[in-house]
Fold:
Amino acid sequence: GNSVTQMEGPVTLSEEAFLTINCTYTATGYPSLFWYVQYPGEGLQLLLKATKADDKGSNKGFEATYRKETTSFHLEKGSVQVSDSAVYFCALSVWAENNDMRFGAGTRLTVKP
Amino acid sequence: DAGVTQSPTHLIKTRGQQVTLRCSPKSGHDTVSWYQQALGQGPQFIFQYYEEEERQRGNFPDRFSGHQFPNYSSELNVNALLLGDSALYLCASSLLGQGVGNEQFFGPGTRLTVL
Structure:
């Protein structure tokens, strides 16, 4: 079946540090890959996505590259801010197959000033 | 554009009771999916509605049922509540015909507590 495994954390960084959150996937078809962010007390917001191999999604300084050879979609940011503190979820969907989203367990990021 | 809205925000029920949660999708969207997010975990897919029918379903018992109305809004019903049903219930809307990379837009969720 389709599934996502992500680094569980929690992750604590100082402001301006480099961030990497690992995500690997298993899929029977050709998945699209997503990173969602959840701020305290809120729903999920799409951060970035990639729909085919070697695509790079980017938004707000965050980046992730769809690596088919390693079945990975790691999230990176060069310099985190306190406002980036949130829970980050890696997810996939296989549109032609079922269209529902499969999420990882989430990684809580805390950025300290 | 109001985005995806859900009601109520919070709900407290006791074991054995029944609950109905409501969702209005983002304007222009025709598909509604429901997810259960237990504390500290990722969302788990419950089911998806399109054209007023359940299009697919995750690994949830029949106590979980739903409905989609002609205006695309949706309800999630849970019968015979168990303590383990306590969670944040998220509604997400999308446009089925969008194709590959079909993004789902999430509402703020309904926090259900079962005592």
